[in-house]
Amino acid sequence: MQTKKWVFSFDELDMVNNAVGDDWDAVRELLGGKGANLAEMVRIGLPVPHGFTVSTEACNAYLKSGGTFPQGMWDQVLAALQTVESQTGKRFGGEEAPLLVSCRSGAKFSMPGMMDTVLNIGLNSQTVAAMIRLTDDARFVYDSYRRLIQMFGSVVMGIADEPFETVITAARRSAGVENDNELSADDWKKVADTFKAIYRRHTTHDFPEDPFKQLKMATEAVFKSWNGKRAVDYRNAAGIAHDLGTAVSVVTMVFGNMGDDCATGVAMTRHGSTGEPHLEGDYLTNAQGEDVVAGIRMTRDLSQLKEEMPDVYAEFERIAKLLEDHYREMQDMEFTIERGKLWMLQTRDGKRTAQAAVRIAVDMVEEGRIDRKTAVLRVNPEHVDFFLHPQFEPTAIAGGRLLARGLNVSPGAAVGQVAFDANMAEAWAKREGKQVIMVRPETKPDDVHGMLAAQGILTSRGGRTSHAALVARQFGKPAVVGASGLTIDLANRQMIVDSQTIHEGDWISIDGTAGNVYEGQLETMVPDIKDPWLIKLLSWADEFRTLGVWTNADYPRDARRALEYGAQGIGLCRSEHMFFETDRLPHFQKMIMADYPVERREALAALLPFQREDFAGLFRVMDGKPVIIRLIDPPLHEFLPDLVELVSELADLKIRLKHAPDMTTIDTLLADIRQKEQLRKRAQSLKEANPMLGLRGVRLGIYIPELTTMQVRAIFEAACMVVKEGIDVHPEVMIPLTSHVNELVRQRGVLEAEAKAVMAEQEVEIAYKFGTMIELPRAALTADQIAGAAEFFSFGTNDLTQTTFGISRDDAEAGFLIEYMETGILPSNPFATLDRDGVGQLIDMAVKKGRTTNPALECGICGEHGGEPQSIALCHELGLTYVSCSPFRVPIARLAAAHAALKAKSA
Ligand code: ADP
Ligand code: MG
Ligand code: MG
After folding, report:
1. Is residue 377 part of a domain?
2. Pick from 826, 767, 776: which is nearest to 801 by CA?
3. Which of the listed residues 253, 284, 310 is the one where a domain comes to its end?
4. 703, 652: one domain
5. Shortest-distance ligand to the CA of residue 292
6. CA of 290 to the centre of ligand 2 (A)
7. Which segments of 108-257 does DSSP mark as H helices, in order?
8. Where a domain ends, among 253, 282, 308?
């Protein structure tokens, strides 16, 4: 029986490709991202040190067996190592020309928590001597040796860095030097010996001098690190499968620390925060591996390499361009220069800000690297949100001091003073007007008031579905959670990061988009929706989408903004919002209080001109685009003062009446009391046990037909007026909360008659529609009947979700709903993401049934879900005409609708 192939040399990629049917995703799954890209770079002829990759399958087999290498694996490693020996002319453990290698982990998705790389494997007393002979540089060799012992000790055996660092500090002191690179060969030799003693003390065995043993132990450690706690936590949080496993890449060492013609560095083919199309990076001369990112020495800007080593730089520039052409993606690369020769050690798709993501996608289309469809799909709809939230200035980030990293669970930048509990956060924010960041180990339902008052939220524990993350996203608060580098000491009102203490009241800045925490106050900016790259990308998105994007707007200013953002109509104008304004509310209250029809008619007549102006304003702005106006929806008590307050005010007034000094005071007080008493009586009589299910929506219109008739008159008078100004108008009158078709038939009859009367008076014909909201399960179930009396349906998914689940949103979101999500009873908040199985099914049924009666039925949604990408995808699937969302979500919805259309097509 042929044993399975577990190990693949970098030059065996063609074989892998054949085996998996040229599926790059499958290659990455087998070899890990790092291993797959190393092999791919070899395949296209780039200078990569020789090496091989042990597959993720080997890792999985090893873990499954409880810790033994699968049959044949180690033999294949030895064979691959021999191949490298013949390719390099060196020998592993050899005393002439010793081969040294690095042992690197790499899973399909790059993730933190995996084992760090061990460099310089293969060094021992004999090979050290050989290396010194070869390089004539004992300093370099002993430095490399002590690095191996230290890295192996900490990474493979889990010894803390501290004892090692203490030794180096002592060595520097006794040699009387400031920097590591001033230490001599002898110093490093002594350090290496002491390191071996530390190793022995901590592990109770000697540092393995046998190179094969070193490699074997390192390989096993990488495999085991797949199930390390940090890695498991990260996968849980990021939703990465636990059965992928990690690969191990073994790579011939190249040395950036052999002198001043050597260097090591990292670079991106484009700017990671702005997307500008030029190389960007850092490097260090005479340094190895991690030195660049470790921040021990000041790095140099890549542009300086151009002066320092012009030929190498030119070669690197050529390779960077080639890699971008090859992958058609911005690349993040690692390189090392050994004695003037460039080596590529890694390449992968570069991480970028939302702004850079948009610019890079558009630029790449214009450079002919990708097509528009790819560009549109490369930008996440939520990225577009970035352009509407404050972010940190890129320069501020560059100059900022990073305190800690955590999970980026809710986007946006926030700056504030640290408050360690919810009450403090609320008191500071509300009473003292301070900006605060609420910092807790984790949050619970009692903390919500503080979270709401804070600019942002930071926790040291928890993942993407923790309470803090869910609440933050819900309320659009920037948040970073699970920043495990923070030690929060609640008792002493302080937190400790890397031995630095942050006290309550100190300023910090958190970047919820990147998951970073900075010291002090970083400068923020609101990125520009007029960004030319974004405008272009969205215009391409419009070419692909079939779903309309409308907006919810009550006022002309909202409508204007939405139009600027690309809205194609108004899907919801809440006509009652205007009644709350100070010049209208008294009339509206009079209307409610009226004892006689004539009083009511007077109050309504006073409101009519206001409403007419409101609607005319919207029609003018929308210039012929459809405008859906919903007739009054909320229960009337919402327009009266709060009953409890009224009662206490009355009690107050009566006490003052008792102590009134003179007749005039008594008269005014009495008048006041009489008026408040009337209000109280009416409020009392309007009080309902369940206002959400009470006298509201279409029921209100049936109960007080004069009210909705006035609204319809206002709509049609406004429409006629605007038409006479030469502007096209398409009003759509929407009747809320229908549950039985008879309600609709009755209301519509009255209202349409009024509309016709206005058009006759004005001698203008308006193209109008009448329709209803579908926000009760009964309406969805009987949609075929209802569609007989409606030209359009608009799904009010907020109410439809409430009534389908039987959950009151306001009560639930501040209470048990969070727990439902934390414990996984609900996969997500149904008020944020449309519930596909329940509410989605009702919508599906209503659309289908409605269209059987009325094939031209226009269907859309106007709940908050209309601006949420996953819900938008569902609306596309269900064949809706449009989604309607808040003006700020319009750009996101345009892109999400394009994604939905493109993905549906390719599926
Ligand atoms: P990470 O995933 O943490 O970046 P890497 O495996 O990429 O870990 O390696 C860590 C550092 O060591 C990087 O700077 C890398 O370039 C360097 N490195 C890895 N292998 C070699 C090698 N064979 N020769 C020289 N440097 C190496
Ligand atoms: Mg790397
Ligand atoms: Mg509703």
Report:
1. no
2. 776
3. 253
4. no
5. 1
6. 8
7. 125-135, 138-151, 162-175, 185-203, 211-225, 229-238
8. 253
- Rounded to an integer, what distance in angstroms lies between the CA atom of residue 218 and that of residue 225? 10
261 and 248 within one domain? no
Residue ranges lining ligand 1, Cβ < 6 Å: 49, 102, 104, 116-117, 119, 251-254, 289-290, 334, 336, 345-346
Within this chain, do residues 549 and 449 fall inside the same structural domain, yes or no?
no
Mutate to test the pocket of ligand 1, among 53, 140, 290 (most ligand atoms within 8 A of CB): 290
User: What's the whole-model pTM score?
Assistant: 0.83
Look up 875 and say whether it is catalytic: no
CA 208–ligand 2 middle distance (angstroms) = 26
Q: Name the residue of 41, 87, 104 whose CB sits within 8 Å of the most ligand 1 atoms, as the mutation to test its pocket.
A: 104
Looking at the CA of 794, which ligand is closest? 3
703 and 663 assigned to the same domain: no
> Do 348 and 265 share a domain, yes or no?
yes
Give 864-892 pLDDT, tens digit per residue.
899 999 999 999 999 999 999 998 899 99
Q: Are 157 and 202 in contact (CB under 8 A)?
A: yes
pLDDT, tens digit, 9 for 90 and up, residues 477-515: 899 998 988 999 999 999 999 889 999 999 999 999 889
Distance CA 10, CA 19 (A): 15
Catalytic residue status for 467: yes
Same domain, 741 and 806: yes
**2 within a domain of the structure (yes/no):** no
Number of domains in the chain: 5
pLDDT in tens, 417-463: 999 999 999 999 988 999 999 999 988 877 888 998 999 999 998 87
- List the CATH number of the domain containing 443: 3.50.30.10
Q: How many residues does the chain have?
A: 907
Clarify whether residues 313 and 400 are in a common domain.
Answer: no
Contact 882, 568 (CB under 8 A): yes
**Which residue segment(s) compose the domain that 454 sits in?**
390-525
Catalytic residue among 862, 875, 876, 885: 862
Query: Are 25 and 84 members of one domain?
Result: yes
For the CA of 249, the closest atom of ligand 1 is 6
- Spatial CA neighbour of 280 closest among 301, 311, 310, 307: 301
What pLDDT does residue 513 have?
85
What is the whole-number distance in angstroms between the Cα of residue 353 and the centre of ligand 3? Answer: 37
- Smallest-distance ligand from the CA of 774: 3
CB 371 within 8 A of CB 57: no
Residue 361 lies in a domain: no
Supply 723's token pair: 């038409």
Which residue lies with its CA nearest to atom 18 of ligand 1? 289
Best mutation site among 34, 222, 336 for ligand 1 pocket (most ligand atoms within 8 Å of CB):
336
